[in-house]
Amino acid sequence: MSRTLSADETCVLVTGGAGFIGSHTVVELLERGYQVVIVDDLSNSSPVAVDRIKTIVGPEAAQNLTFYEANVLDRDALERIFSAHRIDRVIHFAGFKAVGESVQKPLEYYHNNIENTLVLCDVMRQHGCKSIIFSSSATVYGDPDALPLTEESPKKPATNPYGWTKWMIEQILTDFHTADPEWNVVLLRYFNPIGAHPSGLIGEDPKGIPNNLVPYVAQTAIGKRDTVHVFGGDYDTPDGTGVRDYIHVCDLATGHVAALAWMNGKTGVEIFNLGTGTGTSVLEIIRAFSAACGHEIPYVIEDRRAGDVTANYADCTKAREMMGWEAKFDIDDMCRDSWNWQSKNPDGYATAQ
Ligand code: WQD
Predict the structure, then answer these.
(1) Ligand 1 pocket at CB < 6 A
(2) Which sequence spans correspond to the domains of the chain?
(3) pTM given for the model
(4) 8-194+247-277+314-327: CATH number
(5) Residue 307 burial by CB count (10 A; 0-12/13-18/19+): exposed, middle or buried?
(6) Consecutive 10-residue runs of the chain (353 residues): their mean pLDDT?
(7) Ligand 1: which residue has its CA nearest to atom 13?
């Protein structure tokens, strides 16, 4: 049974805590008095993000943050961290996450995402910590039979190795609890996280050409890309383009704080959808971003992208009723904050180095 602790008594290890969702979650945790330890190998993030977290939360709360540059696969590094800190809870973000890349590099994806979870959980249990929140994804629902998606909607075969790693890790953590009922597991299924902290100090900083829509739109808005390539205009949706449930990254971050509070002192496995319940099309995103940046954003409609589903969006009743959490920000808020981040950081964190 994980002990019931107050926030300021709780030390949370955040793997991948310098990344897009991780950094925003660390801000919310520190602002609520949690002690936070980040382990991140910076393979898809920057040390500047850690500095900016400290700037956002201020010097007093920043004293509760410890950062280790290390890979979660590195058992010795994890042993050192768990020996130096009494880790009460773990939020596990660290993992490769590019859908297209995963098709090209399945071995790297399975090794990194699956093995790092196994190493992490083994070191956790050796140190008496069995409380974990896992960064899962709506991708485990595959191509939905019915919308909106609830937590009871069937998991479908994934359409890429990235999706399979999320699918499999959910099963692995569930099996851990079956074998040892002391495990306390929360699986958070994110829909499409976008936006940035309103300060514009932290945000999404993909390496290379963005795989995801909104960072690509943002880079087009600042002139770094010539035009947005819309993958498909003939879907069975109101305007023919793909529909997704976009959620502000700050709402996603507060969802993790709500999950930490909810799981306090419990055991078991619980799944929550973290979305807004609203579907938005690609063209609607482009229009909203144009309004946020004050100028038109060029786009061209092309063929569909292999593996894409027509539409998905969440039913978030369970998170609202059980955790008292729901998303607050709308698409205009998300585009405003994404534009604010991108225009202040044209080259992401590299601008600051
Ligand atoms: C959104 C919509 C595209 C790019 C994936 C993962 C999910 C999560 C987020 C990682 C779709 C269209 C996209 C572009 C476009 N994982 N699109 N032009 O595929 O819904 O979700 O990323 O963070 O687990 O599955 O997100 O942003 O790639 O696509 O038209 O240049 O935008 O067809 O309709 P996706 P996405």
Answers:
(1) 97, 99, 137, 139, 192, 211-213, 216, 229-232, 242, 244, 282, 305, 308
(2) 8-194+247-277+314-327
(3) 0.97
(4) 3.40.50.720
(5) middle
(6) 83 98 98 98 96 98 98 98 98 94 95 98 98 97 95 94 97 98 97 98 94 97 97 98 98 98 95 98 98 98 93 98 98 98 96 59
(7) 213
